[in-house]
Structure to design on (162 residues):
């Protein structure tokens, strides 16, 4: 079953296109005003999402990263989502985006993206408003311990593919 990101205003009504598409990590609206909504910030383990489809991505990892960023940009722009995707190494050539935040670990190594995601959660003033996307149980456990919610990479891939 695919998880749904519920969006409602504090008065219980559905948001309109003019709303800023904000919601708490648990799907509820904040109580700060009738039209106030809180943004779920997505922290995406990029290679976990790429690896959910056996489409020969391993033959050209940089092209796979670019395809994922393109998919995330379209989804974020259409749904008003705030997305940070983290890769274990910098793509070549570098990927730039004005729609999402594209990051990579400072040193390429196994689990480097996981460490970078945990580092971002540690400095976040409101980790409860963050949803981490991963298929890595270790990262999921660490994200939950930091106060973030977690969505599986396969479920998330289905979400962004529409």
């Amino acid at each position: 079953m695919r998880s749904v990101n519920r969006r409602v205003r504090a008065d219980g009504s559905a948001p309109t296109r003019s709303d800023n598409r904000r919601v708490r990590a648990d799907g509820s609206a904040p109580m700060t005003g009738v039209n106030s909504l809180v943004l779920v910030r997505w922290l995406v383990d990029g290679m976990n999402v790429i690896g959910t489809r056996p489409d020969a991505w391993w033959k050209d990892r940089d092209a796979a990263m670019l395809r994922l960023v393109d998919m995330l940009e379209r989804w974020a722009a259409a749904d008003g989502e705030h997305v940070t995707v983290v890769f274990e190494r910098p793509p070549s050539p570098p990927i730039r985006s004005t729609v999402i935040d594209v990051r990579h670990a400072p040193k390429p190594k196994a689990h480097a993206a996981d460490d970078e995601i945990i580092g971002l959660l540690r400095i976040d003033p409101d980790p409860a408003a963050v949803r981490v996307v991963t298929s890595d149980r270790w990262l999921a456990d660490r994200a939950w311990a930091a106060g973030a919610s977690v969505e599986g990479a396969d479920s998330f891939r289905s979400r962004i593919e529409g």
Observations:
- The chain has two domains: 1-39, 41-148.
- The chain has a mean pLDDT of 82.
